[in-house]
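Quick note —
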Amino acid sequence: MEKFDIDQYLNSLPDDINTINLSFRNLTYLPDLSKFKKLEKLNCYFNNLTSLPILPKNLESLCCSNNNLTSLPLLPENLKELYCDNNNLISLTDLPENLELLFCNNNKLTSLPFLNDNLKELWCSGNQLKSLPVLNKNLEILDCDSNQLMLLPVLPENLVELNCKYNRLISLPVLNDNLQSLECYCNNLKSLPILNNNLEFLNCSYNYLTSLPILNDNLELLDCSYNCLTSLPILPEKLIDIDCQHNNITSLPILPEKLKDFNFYDNPIYNIIKYDNDPNIMNRQIKILNNFSHLYYCLKYRTKFLKMMEPVIKKRYHPSYLDNLTEDYDLDEILKKW
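Predicted structure written out below.
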């Protein structure tokens, strides 16, 4: 195959060209690009570049992904999109004020520069980040998975998607009102913050959660598998997919009618409630079990009932109030044997 002559190719292009694509050319260098005064888009991904030349000042989009870059040149002030993922970058230069998208996944970054106000998407997964800078107010997507983060900064009000999986997070910040998707699995979380009402997708699997917060009304997908949960909260009507396998769940709430997929394998309750694709059939089983549990506790504490009025008895000893009751022996073990 004839070797690509980059100098000859660039010399053949008109000076006023606005897009140059040099991808998949096995290039080891790029010549001077200063003559292309109107160049707006430069693609040079999937090469063997270790550096870039000075970039034309009118450049708006730069894609230099999948090279061997260890640093970037000064970025033009008009730049709106920067794709520099899958390189060997250890740091980034200052970000232009007009930059709206930064895609720097899979590098060797230990820190990020100050984020400009216009940035809408930040993709920085697969680096060595231990902290993030203050998040700008217009940020809509934050993907920072597979780093070494223990804490996150305050979430901006416009954030819609947050992916922070595969980190070392011990807690999450307050969730902003506009957040729709939260992926925080494979961390060290023992609790979650209050869920905002616009959240539609929540994956908090592979953590150390012992309980879940109240689930918001708009939640559609919930994955809380591989935690330490003993029960689930009331399930919103819009939920269509629930995965709570590999927990210690001993009782279930009523299932939503729209539920399409429900995985509760490897829980104590799995051996009691028979799975069925029809939520109505499962709900009949759940109601029977809950009533039976209610009856059991009523008999268990019958000596105390004699001292109370019936309304008080129903309120205090309804199944949803039984978690705080303690006795000399383990009631959960008895329920397991049932």
